[in-house]
Design a protein that fits this description.
By secondary structure, this protein is of the alpha+beta class. Helix content is 20%, strand content 31%. It has one domain. It is built from 2 helices and 8 strands; from the N terminus they run βαββββββαβ. A hairpin with a 2-residue loop joins β6 and β7.
């Protein structure tokens, strides 16, 4: 489990589908921002064998993140239900989320409704 922070146009992130960021808008932004790469799938090897995979047409990675690729680390920006979600973001990720939100005419809101 973790804490999610959302880029959304809605006043409450749970209402994102009522005022959505469209998938095509998100993909257009990713294509314009050279710090992003659309990856569509996240794959992790599990201890003891096996693989955990997550597929999503709106899954992108922020490649300019200072922790990128260190020990397999990536800053995932996950489009779903009319919003973009980042799990357990640090201050650097929050700053990037604010930049993305400004471009998409949106805001950054935490799981408990706090504005960033």
């Amino acid at each position: 489990m973790g804490y999610d922070v959302h880029i959304t146009r809605a006043a409450d992130w749970t209402e994102s589908e009522s005022l959505p960021i469209r998938l095509d808008e998100w993909k257009s932004y990713v294509a314009l921002d050279s710090e992003f790469a659309l990856e569509i799938a996240a794959v992790a090897e599990l201890q003891g064998g096996g693989v955990l995979a997550y597929d999503n047409d709106g899954l992108a990675v922020w490649t300019a993140f200072t922790g990128h690729a260190i020990d397999g680390n990536k800053a995932w920006f996950d489009y779903r239900d009319g919003r973009i979600v980042v799990k357990n973001p640090n201050d650097e990720m929050i700053r990037k989320m604010k930049t993305v939100a400004a471009h998409l005419n949106a805001r950054v809101i935490g799981d408990e409704g706090e504005l960033y």
